[in-house]
Amino acid sequence: DALVVASGSRTVQQNGATLEVPHNGQHRPKTLTAHRWPAQTRLLLVEDNRVNQMVVRSLLKRLGLAVDVAINGLEALHLLEAAPQNQAYTLVFMDCQMPELDGYEASRQIGEGIASDRNRDITIIAMTANAMKGDKEKCLEAGMNDYLAKPIDPKALSEMLQKWLLRQGDQPQV
């Protein structure tokens, strides 16, 4: 369902058959408006699940943004550190549960300067299926700045980006 919504498709393949998606609005993608984002905006998605990567990429594309992907916290640390000074990342979407180095520890290490001092204060948004009481607080304690629960609501994603990318009284421009 998430892929159908993200792709805007009206058909889906199931067991070798092409099925028409109902037109009751349930599967229609929500309209997203691309804004005029700051010129140097560069996003990093740290997510090990390919389907989730596809969904987030598609949602961001509809918002007029591109994203690089790291499949775990170790790769994220490397990409952040290796980014040229004039092409530094602006914001990180961080899954919490991943192999090798989870999002909690990756966020702690970013805050400690392991991925270079310039990334210590990078905005990190938790993007996780952990939606129980206390999970948001756990993310914030690990050094993340904010929290989005999965499945990702397109409107909540847009609002989160506006909050963190269009700061200091800037109003989103259509």
Annotation keywords:
7 strands; disordered C terminus; 174 residues; alpha/beta; 33% helix; two-stranded antiparallel sheet; single chain
Task: Give the secondary structure arrangement, pairings included.
Blueprint lengths: L1 H6 L3 E4 L2 E4 L22 E4 L3 H13 L4 E4 L2 H10 L8 E4 L8 H9 L11 E6 L6 H7 L4 E4 L4 H12 L9
Parallel strand pairs: 3-4, 3-5, 5-6, 6-7
Antiparallel strand pairs: 1-2
What class, by secondary structure content? alpha/beta
Q: State the separation between the terminal residues, measured CA to CA.
A: 29 Å
What is the share of helical residues?
25-40%
Mean pLDDT: 82
Sheet bearing the most strands, described? 5 strands, parallel
Compute the CA-based radius of gyration: 17 Å
Write down how many β-strands occur, each being a DSSP E stretch of 2 or more residues: 7
Q: SSE order in H/E notation? A: HEEEHEHEHEHEH
What does this structure look like?
The chain is built from six helices and seven strands; from the N terminus they run H-E-E-E-H-E-H-E-H-E-H-E-H. The protein has helices at 2-7, 50-62, 73-82, 103-111, 135-141, 154-165; strands spanning 11-14, 17-20, 43-46, 67-70, 91-94, 123-128, 146-149. Helix content is 33%, strand content 17%. With 174 residues, it is an alpha/beta fold. The longest helix has 13 residues, at 50-62. Helix 4 (103-111) links the parallel strand 5 (91-94) and strand 6 (123-128). The strands form two sheets. The chain has a five-stranded parallel sheet with strand order 4-3-5-6-7, sandwiched between helices. Strands 1-2 form a two-stranded antiparallel ribbon. The two termini are 29 Å apart.
